[in-house]
Amino acid sequence: MSEERRVRVLVAKPGLDGHDRGAKVIASAFRDAGFEVIYTGLHQTPEMIVSAAVQEDVDVVAMSVLSGAHMTLFPRVKELLGQAGADNVLVTGGGIIPKDDVKELEDMGIGRLFGPGTSTKESIAYVKEWFAIHAVSR
Amino acid sequence: MDESRLTSTSMNEVLERFKAGKPAALSRGISIVENQRDGFEAFLHAAMQTKLQGRRIGLTGPPGAGKSSLVALLTEFYISQGERVGVLAVDPTSPQTGGALLGDRIRMNDIAIDENVFIRSMATRGSLGGLAATTKEILDLMDCFGFDRLLAETVGVGQTEFEIARAVDTVVVVLVPESGDSIQAMKAGLMEIADIFIVNKADRPGSDKLVKEVRQAIHLRSGHNFKGFAGHHGPVIEVHDTAELNELDDELGWEPLVLKTNALTGEGIQELTQAIESHEEWIQGSGELQKRRKLRTEVRIREVMHRELVNRSIASRTVNKILTKRVEAVLSGHATPYSVAMELVDQFLEKDQ
After folding, report:
1. Which residue among A25, A53, B28, B229 is least enclosed by CB atoms within 10 Å?
2. Residues of chain B that touch chain A, judged by Cβ-Cβ distance less than 8 Å
3. Which residues contact B252 (CB under 8 A, 6 or more apart)?
């Protein structure tokens, strides 16, 4: 009866930087990959992102951070998701993030982080692969 | 219905937390229904052991008319009145890829983290009519969760997306001054379902003209025959003696209101909430609400029957066995698809009930 479940992704642009081209490219690419993408626009606080992620019951939160605040924003969203009982949600993203920071964030349980020049194919493949293994039934 | 048909313990867990009023459980419940996960009908049955009483407002209109912005402003108003508000916003699924970009929340940031507001976006997933296949069932689920007010936003409609009229109590059709030319084409369907017309972005040129055109179309339809409108090229005549008009209104029931708003500045929102309130008073007082709810329930039962019959007949072994055999008969000219289909339906109804 039920058809194949769609991947639901929240594409979020946290904090004060206003460069949303990357987020929009990713949102469109995810849509074209057959995902249901919820895009919430600019200047989202971690609280807004988590509230949206819970209400929309997403599998993945993908954040674009170009402001340099990644060491604050990614862990904070992860923490709030945990508090909301949504720790099975993948937190991933991209932006200008130094290699050392990427390593540190991934050690904290954040998913893969993609830098400039990444092909959208790569991030789509990553989400699909994660979904096939980890997605819970809903 | 046997509640043991809930297929997994996790669905039971969701149900329990749903009944305890946990928003995350509502959220998961919506997914269960939206995905039509096995056992979702038993889930709905178990969740719906309460009277549905949320007031339902639907917003529809062409893409970019400002539906989401108006939903946000209405929500702001209702929460200021101490109400709890559930928002369900539908956007289209791409028929090519099956993907969807759900962007209605962009306009709803001001209400996004209010604890009295719950916003959910959904994709049409191939359904026509402006709503998704399970939108109405999800509205019921949200209603049971205890929202005072439910706001449903359709995909940007063209000329055939009128399912919303069967889902809510009050239909608000949102237009913009630029809709002027298309109003001719949209008239037939929209005129019939609208309880309130909004001309949004009213600061733009042409808004007064559109208001006039819409009113004229309403009057044509209700038999008011251009009352208040002069002929070709003529000036607008203000009608001061409205007694005659009011008398007609009583006979005809509700005449759609036409209002101007500007979602950017909030102008006209108060008038919109008043218009919604007077429509609510009218549908309650006139018995129309009972009528609409009755029809809604009847349609729901039929839709569930339809889905269940289709699913069961597709899964039926008897049907599939005979079908495979009879295909040959059709190919060789000894039967037609019609005779085979009739035979199968008869067989199915006899054996598989």
Report:
1. A25
2. 8, 10, 23-24, 27-28, 30-32, 35-38, 93-94, 97-103, 105-106, 109, 112-113, 118-121, 123, 125, 311
3. B222, B223
pTM metric for this prediction: 0.87
Check: CB of residue A26 under 8 Å from CB of residue B101. no
Q: Which is the CATH superfamily of the domain at B50-286?
A: P-loop containing nucleotide triphosphate hydrolases (3.40.50.300)
Rounded (10°) angle between helices B40-47 and B135-145 = 30
Complex ipTM > 0.95: no
Across the 353 residues of chain B, what is the mean pLDDT of every consecutive 10-residue run?
52 93 95 93 93 92 92 97 97 93 92 94 89 92 97 81 87 88 65 90 92 84 53 50 50 85 95 96 93 90 91 88 92 94 90 56
Contacts of B112 in chain A (CB under 8 A): 40, 48, 51-52
Nearest Cβ partner for B118 among A35, A39, A55: A55
Kindly list the structural domains of chain A, giving each domain's residue range(s) and its CATH number in brackets, ordered by start: 8-133 (3.40.50.280)
Give the chain B residue whose CA is nearest to the CA of A81: B24
Amino acid, single-letter form, for residue B160: T
Helix (H) or strand (E) holding B153: strand B149-153
